[in-house]
Amino acid sequence: MAWTATATLCCRLIRLPSARHPTPSRARCSAAQSPDAVDKEYADLNLRPLYTNRGQHLRIRQHVNPLSSSFSEPTEPPEWNEVFEDPLLPLMVDIGCGSGRFLIWLAKNSSQRRNYLGLEIREKLVERTQFWVNELGLRNVHFMFANATVSFEQIISSYPGPLSLVSILCPDPHFKKRRHKRRVLQSPLVDSITKNLCLGGRVLIQSDVLEVAADMRERFDGHSDILAHVDSVDKDLHCDNEGWLLDNPMGIRTEREIHAELEGATIYRRMYQKIRDASH
């Protein structure tokens, strides 16, 4: 049974039984297969009345080749004072934000004063999500059509406030080995995230595919001189004996997370905190 957003705020997610050997491929469940679960999780956003103006089920390509020449040029940053009411607030960036509901929910419900930026490579999703933002009148969340792998540095280095949180949640796994180079988290992006995070800033990575989660983990573990896993600095966050976070620290599940748990999958999470600058 899907949890409501309110219930999720009151208690952390219960860890599902371990499934350490997922099959090499999976059917990425769509919202059309389990609409009630997503609708219940995000019910307080009240997006359904807006579907008549901007359709609920867009024809969206599930897989995009980020190495295509059309995605090779970095995206220019926005005029920050035009997209955010206060561009000096701490910023959270969700890389591969998909439909955007997760970030919109945080922008509307989080008790923390911060701005939220979603980066997504599928343009139709960005257009619909930004339409929702405008209709809801939110001035602390913005979405951009961008290939984060090549655009993150140019966009985020121009932000006038501190970068306090970056999330990469259930990215496209690109299972075939020859397509691993298409995965969003490549070394230049890891370097840029690490460099631009403010001291005390955090990175949350998550996947329902162990191989993908382990690959992301290895890349951030390689910056152990700058980043510490949060269980070493925040004793309220607990891990299993393999170092994966037991609970969801965000207070709301992503759509992919909802579908994966309905399929019986385990969610593998790590969160890092910046403890020093690279120059130190």
UniProtKB/TrEMBL annotation:
Gene3D superfamilies: Vaccinia Virus protein VP39 (3.40.50.150)
GO molecular function: tRNA (guanine(46)-N7)-methyltransferase activity
Enzyme nomenclature, EC number: 2.1.1.33
Catalytic activity, as annotated: guanosine(46) in tRNA + S-adenosyl-L-methionine = N(7)-methylguanosine(46) in tRNA + S-adenosyl-L-homocysteine
One matching Pfam family: Methyltransf_4
Uppermost EC category: transferase
NCBIfam families: tRNA (guanosine(46)-N7)-methyltransferase TrmB
Alphabetic keyword roster: Methyltransferase, S-adenosyl-L-methionine, Transferase, tRNA processing
Domain of life: Eukaryota
Name recorded for this polypeptide: tRNA (guanine(46)-N(7))-methyltransferase
Keyword Repressor in record: no
InterPro entries: SAM-dependent_MTases_sf, tRNA_(Gua-N-7)_MeTrfase_Trmb
Tagged with keyword S-adenosyl-L-methionine: yes
